Structure formats: C-alpha cells, structure tokens
From TrEMBL:
PANTHER family: ENOLASE SUPERFAMILY, MANDELATE RACEMASE, MITOCHONDRIAL ENOLASE SUPERFAMILY MEMBER 1. Its cofactor is Mg(2+). Residues 156-253 form the Mandelate racemase/muconate lactonizing enzyme C-terminal domain. It comes from Fundicoccus culcitae. NCBIfam families: TalGalacDh (NF047820). Gene3D superfamilies: Enolase-like C-terminal domain (3.20.20.120), Enolase-like, N-terminal domain (3.30.390.10). Keywords: Magnesium, Metal-binding. This is Mandelate racemase/muconate lactonizing enzyme family protein.
Length: 378
C-alpha cells in the first residue's frame, strides 16, 4: 500500500465578474425589490499539492456579496497551507472556526465552498475517479430543465420561442417565472406555454418568494390544472410553515431551499416536511461536505432532489441520488466559455461526465478577461 498523505503547497483565489448576455428579471424585480440581474460574481480556488495534484472549486453570488465571499476566502487560504488535502471534514471545520464570530451560515460557509469543492476534486483525482464515482454513482444521466428562457422581462412569445430552441437542444423541461401581483397574468403565461409545448413536456414555475400563503393557495389552485412538476418558492424562503401548508394543500409539488445558506437552515424543512422538492444549493451551503448530509435527509424523506443553479457541480450529486432528481440548466457560464468543458445534453437528460474529479477546468483566456482581483498563497 502506498501512503497517500499529501500536503497543500499553494492556494490561489480569484474574483471574477461574469456578465450576462442580457439583464434578467424575476418576480423580485417586477415587485420593485431588486433591479434586473446583470452579472454573477465568482470566487474561484485552485489548490496545488506536493504530490502534484491540482483541484478547482468555486462559489458564486448574484448581486451584492460576491466581494465579501472573496475577501473571506482570501483570509482563509493561508490556513490550508501545509495541511493534508485528504482531511476535508477537518479542514472544513478549521475554516469555519476561523470565522465563527460572523456565524455558521451565509458568507461564513460560502467562503469555505471553493476550497471544499477543490479538495473533493483532488480527492477524486487521486483515486482516479470522477466525484460521482468516488462517492457512489447511481445514474449516468440526470433529467435537466432550462431556466434562462423563462424570466419575466420576456413576452410569452419569446419564452415559447426559447423553450422550443432548448428542447430541441436536448433539455427535458422548461421553468418559467411567476409570482406577479396579478397571478392571473402568470396563469395565462403557463397556459400558453403548456399549449405551445404540449402535455408531455415537464413544466416548472418559480414565484421567487413574492406571494403570501393565501395568494399562493389561490394561484396554486389555478396552476394545479397544468400538471406542473413543481411550484417553486411560492412564499418567503424562510417560511417553512407556509411552504408546508401549501405542500399539504395543493396537488402541485412544492419546491424550495435555494435561499438557505447552511445544511442546518434546511433542517426544519425536513422535520416539517415543508417541501416535496429539495433545492438546497451546494455552493450556497458550504460545498460537497455539508451537501452529503442533504442527500441523506432527502433520501430518508423520499424527496425529489433539484439543487438550485450550478449545473456543473450539481450534476455529480444528483447522479449519486437514488430518487428522482433534476439538474437546472443555465447557459450563462457556457456563453462566456468559463470552463474548458461543456455540458452534454441528450434527449432530456444531462450526461454525467466520467472526467476525473468534478471534471472542470477554468478557461484561462476567459478568466483573464473577467478577473477583478486575485491572490496566491504559498
Ligand atoms: Mg428559484
């Protein structure tokens, strides 16, 4: 047996600003709470080891907070130098304890995310496996649905046109935004989309937290007739009791969890069975280490798993999951060639890659173009 201990010799963190091809608006914008989204912040990490391994990870942020994630990651990076990259759980704890006075969720764990992902990337590469094979793969393809064409700034005709385009490209479902004050406007859009793409295509809708429970109940009863795969974030993200009530009252499954920023914030949702579809987001809760707990809880409760965003990172974890799962297809990173690798769509599914680790590497030309700041620690 070879001794597989190793040592972290270099950590590099970068702050990137990824522009969107066009600004997008969900119900939060329509209700006047936010301005249209124009870019996504990324903090990336590259970890190098004495034995010659190199791991990559990232965390993202929409709107304000991206520079805070980066600042914290930069402060944490020196704590990894000289450590054994195999000890991921111990290093996760070490990084969290280093910033515990700012809490144990949100930015505190999101500063850890790029390192956690990079360390799992290294662990899988050392084992000569993909991440999903390392942890235990169950599927070689996962159904995927597209979100980018369903925002509220677009007319329903534009939404339908985009839907046809991505369905043809191999996506298996279409999500559109709802959550307007006059929910009958949303019902009309859903009806038109259903008519245009037919009864067999999966449709999801997302209210982005903009209804109260009684409005969501009323809207949900209209939406129940369209055989939707789920109704997402009908009410405020932290209202697990409201989500639970809707889940018990409506036929359409209730999805939520993307705004939760630690595994522990998700616990009441599991305990109350407040959702049918769990959307906890690996980068937002601190990486793969805490996400393994999410997989276990989802499995115990026989939930559908549909992690929010970050299709590149969520494809391997949905491939590990035994019950139904979905990957959320976003073209944003591919449009700017952020990674050297591209997703592979096939007849409604995203194909799980057998590349080593997470199977991702940053395209250096793009990184140079989008770079806002960087720091190397040896
Ligand atoms: Mg959403």
């Amino acid at each position: 047996m070879t001794n597989q201990t190793d040592k972290i010799t270099q950590v590099e963190v970068k702050l990137l600003k990824v522009p969107l091809a066009k600004p997008v608006s969900d119900a939060k914008v329509i209700m006047g709470k936010q301005t249209p989204l124009t870019h996504v912040w990324l903090t990336t990490a590259t970890i190098k080891t004495e034995a010659g391994y190199e791991g990559y990870g990232y965390v993202y942020c929409k709107r304000n907070g991206g520079t805070a994630q980066y600042a914290l990651a930069k402060e944490m990076a020196p704590l990894l130098i000289g450590e054994d990259p195999n000890d991921i759980s111990r290093l996760w704890d070490k990084l969290l304890w280093s910033c515990i006075s700012i809490g144990n969720s949100g930015v505190a764990v999101q500063g850890i995310t790029p390192f956690d992902i990079a360390l799992w990337d290294i662990k899988a590469k050392r084992a000569n496996l993909s991440v999903s094979k390392l942890v235990g793969q169950r599927k070689d393809r996962v159904p995927c649905y597209n979100t980018t064409g369903g925002f509220l700034q677009d007319s329903i005709e534009e939404v339908i046109e985009h839907a046809h385009k991505v369905l043809e490209a191999g996506v298996g479902g279409i999500k559109i935004k709802v959550g307007q004050k006059d929910f009958m406007q949303d019902v009309k859009r859903v009806k038109a989309l259903r008519k245009a793409i037919g009864d067999d295509v999966a449709i999801m809708v997302d209210a982005n937290q903009q209804w109260d429970v009684s409005t969501a109940l009323k809207a949900g009863r209209y939406l129940d007739e369209f055989n939707l795969v789920w109704l997402e974030e009908p009410v405020k993200a932290h209202d697990y009791k409201g989500h639970g009530r809707l889940s018990r009252s409506l036929e359409t499954p209730i999805a939520t969890g993307e705004m939760l920023t630690s595994f522990r914030e998700g616990l009441p949702y599991f305990e109350e069975r407040a959702f049918d579809v769990c959307q906890l987001d690996m980068p937002r809760i601190g990486g793969l280490t805490p996400f393994l707990n999410v997989l276990e809880r989802c499995d115990e409760n026989d939930l559908v798993l549909a992690p929010h965003y970050s299709m590149e990172l969520h494809l391997p974890v949905t491939a590990m999951y035994g019950n139904d799962a979905w990957v959320e297809h976003f073209e944003w990173f591919e449009q700017v060639d952020l990674f050297n690798e591209k997703s592979v769509l096939d007849n409604g599914f995203m194909v799980v890659s057998d590349r080593l680790g997470f199977g991702l590497s940053f395209n250096e030309t793009t990184v140079t173009k989008l770079l806002e700041d960087s720091s190397v620690i040896n």
